[in-house]
Amino acid sequence: MTRRRRVSWPGIAQHLIQRGNNRQICFADEHDMLMFGQWLCDYSSEHGVAIHAWVFMSNHVHILATPREHNSIALMMQALGRRYVRYFNSRHRRTGTLWEGRYRSCLVDSDEYLLQCQRYIELNPVRAAMVSAPDQYRWSSYRTHAHGKVSTLTTPHSLYLGLGNTPIERQAAYRALFCEQLPAPLVEDISKTTLSGLALANDKFRQQIQQLTGQSVTPGKPGRPPRQRRTAQPDDNHRLL
To answer: Could you report the per-residue pLDDT of 12-26, keeping only the tens digit for each?
Structure first.
């Protein structure tokens, strides 16, 4: 099956997922996460990518980012992946691949889905039952958005900045968004859309993306296309019983 070509457009946010090979760990300890975060900060700056939200789990990462150029995110992830694999293999005395193929990504309709996708990312440790609240997990952008923790990696999205006129107002409004869990259908939709390389968006947004890029980001109909039936021959009768 031909794999779907990634769709990227300057100024449109993307949700990224990078998994460890066969769901094995890609972070053995906090030092690994620290190094990955530092290089993500370096390469995002170098290639013109604004990182809005992120979480580092033991065997995968989630990133919400907006590229400045068409290939900004691809260049960032390529440089980051190679640098980190060399470090990880050397430090932990291993060889071979670390990542489960290429990273997955989807475009995000900012007006309708961006803050929901951001909540999805920062609630990952809660859904994994690692913590009972997102502020208990160190390796995500939640503390920056909810409590004002200084971060050189995180660039708040304009929709986050619009939650209030002051940092205190924005942080309080953001915390209020986490009083309830995301609906299960939305969680599933975000995951499937990202893994499929489509767009987390309404039909109007998808149509606009197709007009811009010439590539569809709309889910196809489930199942295989119907096959043309062959006319049965006398010797085939036993197969039709």
So the answer is: 999 999 999 998 999
Instruction: Supply the pTM of this predicted model.
Output: 0.89
Q: Does residue 200 contact residue 108 with C-beta atoms inside 8 Å?
A: yes
Please choose, from the candidates 61, 55, 77, 51, the residue with its C-alpha nearest in 3D space to the C-alpha of residue 20.
61
Rounded to 10°, the helix 110-122/184-196 angle is 100
Domain layout of the chain by residue ranges: 14-201
Which is nearest to 63 in space by CA: 177, 175, 155?
155
- Which residue, chain included where needed, has tokens 């968006």? 201
**What DSSP string runs through 57-103?**
-SSEEEEEEEESSTTHHHHHHHHHHHHHHHHHHHHTT--S--BSSSP
Report the CATH superfamily, name and number, of domain 14-201.
Transposase IS200-like (3.30.70.1290)
Q: How close are the terminal C-alpha atoms of the chain, in Å?
A: 33
To the nearest 10°, the Cα dihedral for 90, 92, 95, 98?
-100
Bridge partners, 212 (sequence order) = none
Task: State which H helix or E strand residue 50 sits in.
Answer: strand 49-56
In terms of residues, how long is the chain? Answer: 241
Q: How many other C-beta atoms are found inside a 10 Å radius of the C-beta of residue 235? A: 7
**How many of the other CB atoms lie within 10 Å of CB of 34?**
13
Write out pLDDT tens, residues 88-122: 999 999 999 999 989 999 999 999 999 999 999 99
